[in-house]
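Input record, target 12 of the design panel.
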């Protein structure tokens, strides 16, 4: 079965990014770079801008996967709903008796990046979960190498871990799908457990692949919300981060299908998550006529889009964003009609917990599908209250409230 990138993403300014040859160290993330969220890669310099996205999204549409994610949105999840990072949809499992081990084990983590607020939030959560497993004697250390959104760097990082020969288990969050597949396969060939999460690769060799439901589910949730609150013939501006990341392309492929089926006029643009470009796109569209809706494949930049309507003196659109705090707060302040799709940030805990089970020789899901539920208007106040004091770049469904550093490390945006 082809495993696609499942998103969806951060933790420091460029000067604070992890060195290529070092483990993680304490680093402040008070001023992260403007980038993307929900598992996406940072847009390359010069990418995006107020340019209509090219046609050809059909290549990313997979009817079978669309149908599966449509059903999974209402699936029953095994496990404790109070700990959604441990839940999964029942299915094929992987026997792990051969990986059972005594004593603390060394984990090697190859990370695509910590280049945007979604990944920063998750990285903090992951480090707090690591502390718990170190204290309980499951993990001795987690050596981490950050690829800074570069395929070649990440391939070299994985090969370094393999050559080093000191890893008892691998965690890999791939930068991109096809390019990282051979490196993941080489990690599997070591005979050590391999946990892939967030984005996928084109191989089933990993011990488990962990991800929320996926991009089609996001697109279905967000596009159906707009259709339900708009009329046939209404105009939607779709703001997309960048091309070629399959979870993002799947989000748009699902949304485009639903818009076309319901007579919604949608024009999509790549933005590079640049607030200035987002404002320009919206301003230019408003100059040519009314815009009734805004669809986003990630919430980064949602506030800039809303501000463009304010600057133009136009009515607020029906809006989709994400569970980033900046959008939730602006949504509440404006009273606009909105929804916050979610690419569950709490997934950053799950790879370490999966290795805990693997080192104990317990079965794990072969494909570990986590819950993915949007935040609705009637839920918004609760999430705002639960995350009071968190910075704008924080994600409401981060799932770290029971971890040792809560709430300080997420408020301070410092990696422990």
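The sequence produced for target 12 reads:
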């Amino acid at each position: 079965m082809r495993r696609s990138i499942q998103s969806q993403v951060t933790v420091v300014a460029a000067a604070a990014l992890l060195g290529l040859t070092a483990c993680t160290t304490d680093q402040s993330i008070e001023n992260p770079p403007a980038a993307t969220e929900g598992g996406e890669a940072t847009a390359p310099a010069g990418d995006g801008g107020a340019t209509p996205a090219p046609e050809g999204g059909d290549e990313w549409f997979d009817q079978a996967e669309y149908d599966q994610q449509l059903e999974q949105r209402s699936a029953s999840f095994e496990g404790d709903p109070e700990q959604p990072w441990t839940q999964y949809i029942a299915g094929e499992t992987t026997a792990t008796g051969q990986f059972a081990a005594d004593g603390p084990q060394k984990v090697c983590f190859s990370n695509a990046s910590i280049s945007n607020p979604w990944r920063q939030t998750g990285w903090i959560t992951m480090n707090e979960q690591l502390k718990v497993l170190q204290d309980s004697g499951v993990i001795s250390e987690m050596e981490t190498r950050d690829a800074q959104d570069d395929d070649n760097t990440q391939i070299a990082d994985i090969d370094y871990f393999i050559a080093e020969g000191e890893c008892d288990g691998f965690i890999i969050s791939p930068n991109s799908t096809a390019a990282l597949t051979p490196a993941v396969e080489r990690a599997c060939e070591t005979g050590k457990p391999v946990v892939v999460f967030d984005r996928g690769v084109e191989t089933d060799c990993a011990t488990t692949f962990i991800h929320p439901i996926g991009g089609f589910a996001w697109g279905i949730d967000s596009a159906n919300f707009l259709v339900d609150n708009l009329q046939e013939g209404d105009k939607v501006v779709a703001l997309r981060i960048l091309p070629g990341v399959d979870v993002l392309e799947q989000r748009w492929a699902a949304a485009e299908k639903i818009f076309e089926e319901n007579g919604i006029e949608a024009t999509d643009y790549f933005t590079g998550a640049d607030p200035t470009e987002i404002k320009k796109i919206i301003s230019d569209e408003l100059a040519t006529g009314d815009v009734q809706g805004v669809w986003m494949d990630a919430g980064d930049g949602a506030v800039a889009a809303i501000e463009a309507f304010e600057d133009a003196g136009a009515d607020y659109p029906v809006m989709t964003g994400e569970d980033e705090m900046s959008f939730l707060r602006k949504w509440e302040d404006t009273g606009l009609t909105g929804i916050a799709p979610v690419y569950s940030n709490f997934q950053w805990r799950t790879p370490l917990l999966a290795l805990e089970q693997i080192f104990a020789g317990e079965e794990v899901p072969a494909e570990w599908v986590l819950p993915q539920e949007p935040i609705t208007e009637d839920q918004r106040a609760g999430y705002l209250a639960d995350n009071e004091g968190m910075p704008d770049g924080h994600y409401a469904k981060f799932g770290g409230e029971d971890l040792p550093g809560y709430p300080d490390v997420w408020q301070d945006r410092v990696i422990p």
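The chain has a mean pLDDT of 88.
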